[in-house]
Amino acid sequence: MTTTFDHGAPSPGKTDSGRRGSHAVRWWVLVVLGVAQLMVTLDATVVNIALPAAQHDLGFSDANRQWVVTGYALAFGSLLLLGGRLGDLFGRRTTFVTGLIGFAGASVVGGAATSFDMLVAARVAQGLFAALLAPAALSLLSVTFTQRSERAKAFGIFSALSGAGAAVGLLLGGMLTEWASWRWVMYVNVIFAGVALVGALLWLARPAAAERPKLDIPGSIVVSAALFGIVYGFAHVESTSWTDPVALGSMIGGLVLVAVFAWMELRVAHPLLPLRVVLDRTRGGSFLAVFVMGMGMFSIFLFLTYYLEASIGYSPIEAGLSFLPMVGGIVAASTTVPALLLPKVGPKVVISVSFLVAASGMALLTQLTLDSAYVANIMPGMILLGLGLGGAMTTAFQGATSGLHHEDAGVASALINTGQQVGGSISTALLTTVASSAATDYLSSHKPGTLTVAQAGVESYTATLAWGAGIFVVGAALTALLMPNTTLAPSEGEPVIAH
Predict the structure, then answer these.
(1) Is residue 498 part of a domain?
(2) β-pair partners for 2
(3) Contact by Cβ (8 Å): 423, 293
(4) pTM, full prediction
(5) Mean of pLDDT values over 180-208
(6) d(C-alpha 133, C-alpha 128), whole Å
């Protein structure tokens, strides 16, 4: 058995002779990958709403509560690049299946947790297996769909699920916590993973690699430590301050290790991250766009949820349902922009304009008050946010995986997830500080009272939304400056198995 590489889509008028990897069942493959991606993205938010119930049940402190969320983010964010390269080296199907089984197992342990330590350990294990699963899913998508028209549709659907996952997590978390138990927030992953696992075993091809390059072990250790330091440092800021020596030391150490990692990758025979992946302007601009989206999206979901529940009294389920117009906007833009706009105006214009649309939606939401009505004051901003995020996300996902060598698809996909994780960590720490400062400033300049405290909360949330709008505007400007407006090339196709 030998393996060759398909370097693009079949030419018009030709058909594949036999089964070309997963290409023959590619739309079923998309369903499998989409279910897995939805599970990973919703798990970043589904636990948030269940945390108070879990805290009451297991009896852990407010100070320890953040580690249920941070434990997942640390393992996921720090191991993504390694997970992406393992998929390139040992087979994406194998890595994907391993990630599914491990994630489901960790979810069972988390749902059955009898102590805080057991719950956090399960969340860390979820993050570890998600670091295998997420890059494998996106790289499988990138090498399965190589025809330009089909690729646009596939990435649109996948991006819609990625963008909607966090909002769906809020709704699902509220429903499961209110109607069943916080433990079902963990157990529900077994259903998603089981569906995806059956589909993966049925429809994902098992390509045979002709050769297996060596793993860059020193680079893997350095970059994992770097990402851990950055994510941990920003997470630590949330519970301490920007001058805390542990937080500062972690962030600075992480950045130094990133520089060391880049230096190392120029000098090794089999780099973990070949710098050609990021030095291409289209891919580099797309990775930057993903980072900006990670920063902006976390401010939306976190602080807008606080506003809906704490300021205007929505239940967890009502808060989750409130995000559905944004989900609709994400789905609409993700599934139409790739086919209708991207071929005509190019990726630079699509991403820049999409960021400005998202910024306008965020700007509308900065006008929220204690008396804001949902239909008149909240929904229009959410729809604009969804349209902007959907257009930018699907284009950035395609751009970040365009023109790749087959052996680089996994690590490029890992970079996309890394950008989202690191961007989210930075913005959560930054915007938590912004919110706290805005509330303190309002309280210090107004007469004490119940209404003043409530309004201070609104001021803190709208301040973060204003910063979020600014982040998107800066992202639009950087994209317009750095990204070329060229046609996106597909990645090389998946290996063809010859018997």
Answers:
(1) no
(2) 498
(3) yes
(4) 0.86
(5) 90
(6) 9
